[in-house]
Amino acid sequence: MELRYLVYVLMFLLTTLFLYLIKTRDQKDLNRRGRLPPGSMGWPYIGETLQLYSQDPSLFFATKQKRYGEIFKTHILGCQCVMLASPEAARFVLVTQAHLFKPTYPESKERLIGPSAIFFHQGDYHTRLRKLVQSSLSLNSIRNLVADIEAISALAFDKWDGGLMINTFQEMKKISFEVGILAILGHLEPHHKEDLKKNYSIVDKGYNSFPTNFPGSPYKKALLARQRLSKVLSDVIGERKEKKLLEKDLLGCLLNSKDEKGEVLTEDQIADNIIGVLFAAQDTTASALTWIIKYLHDNPKLLEAVKAEQKAIRKLNDKPLNWNQTRKMPLTYKVVLESLRMASIISFTFREAVADVEYKGYLIPKGWKVMPLFRNIQHNPEFFTDPQKFDPSRFEVAPKPNTFMPFGSGVHSCPGNELAKLEMLIVVHNLVTNFRWEVVGSENGIQYGPFPVPQRGLPARFWKESTSSNALQFTMT
Ligand code: HEM
User: Where does the UniProt annotation place the signal sequence (predicted)?
Assistant: First the structure.
């Protein structure tokens, strides 16, 4: 009995010694290759993961930045990381030296979205897809979506009338899903849309769950739902081909694409990109919309001014909103930009160094993760005076270069940014010209899931207001 314990203890000591020797060897090797940035790597193996997740992540990064400066190292989620909190460093990684840093995502997430999706790639395949995604989301393409987006948001809002308590984020997700589908797949048959919605929501739930293949686990359910999504998309593609429809939505662009050898994209590549773009579009835009509703609610004077701007547009032309009108909403547009800055929906991103890279005398070792910290840059008082104050007027002057990157920067920057902004302008237009609302509860915190959302998704009640134009129509009939 005692001998068995002795053997366990011995094995434990030997393993510890072995790992220690490897760590010391690696450390010596790193020291030979260059000077690592300052910072702490935390506890063996778990690094500083607990510190990161036991507090507001922005606070974790801000404290580090205060202590170590614009570049520092840490160890989180099993990865050695270099964090970059200056505009120049973000530009270095995302733009000027982007070829030295590849996108990196956990394998479990790649499996769920689909390994051929645009954001997992770089090089020729990425360039090809990016052109296709960009052209389907260009200003020229999305200008035709105004009436449909307005109809989607009006339909959603009408369901909330009468003071029903809603979870604002969940409702905004419904809108951004519909708009995403519209831009990606056009006007889908209702039964296809229902199938997509049902299965996509299971994938969405499993995305942030523990990645285990155990039957019945949220991750396993999500994998199965992802297979069903491929089947639905295959049916949609089949029908398109049969009817020889030439649509300009993303699916149309993907179906028509041929590379220089005349090769078309496979059905799996198309499905992965459709799910990928939908994924990139939904929670991000819904989160931004939820914050706009909160910020407007918390700033009554500003809300009145936005209402006045939007009601004037409505008065000028009592028909549905048109593209030109969406280009002339200066105050609302600044509210959108300031909401994106304040909320910093994508707080940071990940890349991986594909070679040893030197930045300002520091070594970023090959294989290490690199994280440009968008939120810290967008909340730095050096670039944005009184950064915690919601002040759209700060956008009367353009921000300094590389200090405002809500949609990222460089080769992987967001191709959906114009669609997202258009959607926000239209939703705000519909909301402030037709509704008043009250936020329920007075919590002010942020919930990360993983995008920042107001606590509990911002519970709120909405009431339809009788507008003067409605009243006028009523008296005339
Ligand atoms: C407020 C809403 C949105 C925000 C804040 C946002 C933010 C971002 C950011 C920061 C990136 C770059 C990530 C990185 O460099 O690692 C990105 C990439 C991307 N976004 Fe968005 N996004 C939004 C809406 C959308 C929409 C509506 C679509 C499509 C309809 C979309 C599609 C994409 C795609 C496909 C990529 C990957 C691009 C590539 O890898 O080349 N996004 N987004």
Answer: none
> Is there a cis peptide before residue 57, judged by omega within 30 degrees of 0?
no
What is the rounded average pLDDT of the residues 329-346?
Answer: 97
Tell me, using a 6 A CB cutoff, whether residue 364 lines ligand 1.
no
Q: Is 414 labelled a binding residue?
A: yes
- How big is the CA angle at 279 (ends 278 and 285), to the nearest 5 degrees? 85
Given pLDDT bands bounded at 50, 70 and 90, which one contains residue 318?
Answer: low
Q: Locate the domains of the chain by residue range.
A: 32-115+347-405, 120-186+247-344+415-464
d(CA 81, CA 334): 34
Helices (H) then strands (E): counts for the chain: 19, 12
Q: Which helix (H) or strand (E) holds 352?
A: strand 351-353
Q: Which residues of 272-300 are buried (b: 16+ CB within 10 A; e: fewer)?
A: bbbbbbbbbbbbbbbbbbbbbbbbbbebe
Count of other CB atoms within 10 angstroms of residue 203: 21
Q: Is the CB of 137 under 6 A from ligand 1?
A: yes
CB-ligand 1 contact for 406 (6 Å cutoff): yes
Q: How far is the CA of 439 from the centre of ligand 1 (A)?
A: 28
Q: Whose CA is nearest to atom 17 of ligand 1?
A: 414
Which CATH number describes the domain made up of 32-115+347-405?
3.30.43.20
Question: Mean of the per-residue pLDDT values for the chain?
Answer: 91
Which residue's C-alpha comes closest to atom 43 of ligand 1? 414
Q: Which of 195, 204, 151, 142 is nearest to 173 (CA)?
A: 204
Beta bridge partners of 76: 79
pLDDT above 90 (res 22): no
- Which of 222-236, 240-254, 428-442 is the most confident on average? 222-236
Q: Does 1.10.630.10 match the CATH number of domain 120-186+247-344+415-464?
A: yes
Tell which one of 373, 414, 421 to mutate to probe ligand 1, the residue whose CB is within 8 A of the most ligand atoms.
Answer: 414
pLDDT tens profile 343-361:
999 999 999 999 999 999 9
Residue 287 CA to ligand 1 center (angstroms) comes to: 13
Name the pTM for this structure.
0.91
> Under a CB-based contact definition with an 8 Å cutoff, are residues 449 and 205 in contact?
no
Which pLDDT score is estimated for 54? 66
**pLDDT of res. 309:** 97
